[in-house]
């Protein structure tokens, strides 16, 4: 009987400790947090390919890759791309990070708040940016600006993702 009580006491203490740890880390934040991020080489290749894809169509664009925090990691600008395409491409990519979906889908799905979101510093809810995923994790976003329409910007971004599909699926 005494052995059974001791086992019950130990199991109870283990359960309390486990539940306490689960509650302590319920927000997903532990002492050390890791996250998946795009590497510099792949980010540069994606941006360069997006610019090249649009150049083949006759468009001078800027492509920006942002990390999962929305911070720019790489920017590639065609020689004749207008100055403001840098900010627009970045802000489109940041909208992707905010929404977790391509900027065109965000725009279509949330027409009710699109105008308000466009007043948030650093966000533009316009077509032309796509999610960069690897093995189900969002590792960044690719924004393109400068083609005559966000749909054409998005086509160039998707073409770049397709060109490096194998490198995005490494894990």
Question: Could you describe the 3D structure shown?
Answer:
With 171 residues, this protein is α+β, with helices and mostly antiparallel strands. The protein has seven helices and four strands; from the N terminus they run H-H-E-E-H-H-H-E-E-H-H. It has a four-stranded antiparallel β-sheet. Helix 2 (40-56) crosses helix 6.
Determine the fraction of residues in helical runs and give it as a percent range.
Answer: 40-55%
**3D shape:** globular
Alpha-beta classification: alpha+beta
Main β-sheet, spatial strand arrangement: 2-1-4-3
Count of separate DSSP helical elements: 7
Q: For the report, how would you describe the main beta sheet?
A: 4 strands, antiparallel
First-residue to last-residue Cα separation? 52 Å
Low-pLDDT stretches are 6-24
Give the ordered list of helices and strands.
Answer: HHEEHHHEEHH
Number of beta-strand segments: 4
Radius of gyration: 22 Å
Return the average pLDDT rounded to an integer. Answer: 87
Percentage of residues in DSSP E strands = 15-25%
Keywords:
single chain; 171 residues; alpha+beta; four-stranded antiparallel sheet; 7 helices; 4 strands; globular
Secondary-structure blueprint:
Elements: H1 2-24, H2 40-56, E1 62-66, E2 72-77, H3 85-99, H4 103-109, H5 114-117, E3 129-134, E4 137-145, H6 150-163, H7 165-168
Antiparallel strand pairs: 1-2, 1-4, 3-4
Helix pairs in contact: 2-6
